[in-house]
Prior knowledge:
Layout: E1 4-5, E2 14-21, H1 33-42, E3 43-51, H2 57-62, H3 68-82, E4 86-90, E5 105-106, E6 109-112, E7 115-118, E8 124-127, H4 135-139, H5 141-167, H6 175-182, H7 184-203, E9 208-211, E10 218-222, E11 225-229, E12 238-243, E13 248-252, H8 261-270
Parallel strand pairs: 1-13, 2-3, 3-4, 4-6, 8-9, 9-11
Antiparallel strand pairs: 2-12, 5-6, 7-8, 10-11, 12-13
Helix pairs in contact: 1-3, 5-8
Amino acid sequence: MKPAEYDVPEQRPQRHRAIWISDIHLGTPGCKAEYLLDFLKWNESDQLYLVGDIIDGWQLKKGWYWRQSHNDVIQKILRKARKGTHVTYIAGNHDEVIRQFLGMAFGDIKIVDEATHQLLDGRRIWVTHGDLFDGIILHAKWLAYLGDSMYTVILKLNNWFNHFRHKMGMSYWSLSQYLKHKVKNAVSFITKFENIVTDEARRRGYDGVLCGHIHKAEIRDINGILYCNDGDWVESLSAIVETSEGVLKVVHWPYRTSESLDEQENLAVSA
């Protein structure tokens, strides 16, 4: 299914039954917090699922990086929760420290390991970050850390690349996503991941699964099970929404409607 592109609303936010976002990686230079703030400004929902890797604990252990825009994302989400949005935070591998708080609530945000969402048409969707099905994370964490360091370098190149694209009046384009699709091993890993997670959803009696982790936004059928991945906010700048009519859509949000974003991007590029 081809992802649906949204135009920035001119007058008021879009209202959805549910929104799923993941892999924000707050605490890293690659995090596109300003884009996410813009998305959250123009999109409201009854349910908001934070599907893991919201804060990047791995990178914060290596060195402190935290811009005002990262604070603003946290405050925006807390404000939505206070105003009545049901916010569920599902732990990922980069923010695995929150798993010690499973079952608790912080500022009206529930902390869980997984969740079940029922679509308007009655289908049951299993919501999980997806790291538990990543063999590298489970059996060779040191290799995952090595891969994460190389990925950080690619994201820095991505920041530089898009900085100059923007200066030339060109839209955002993910260099890291392009490289990922061109590397045979990465494509093979993604395919195996998708098959494993949908098989587990079937075994558990769900109609579909919604996850993050691999930074590849997509909605498609895999052997009779609905597979959904909400992407990320370092590369694809994407989320999944269930509209008020019960339709699931991938939303890409390469928009920057705030004039201050140019200055913030310059700071991120120079970091």
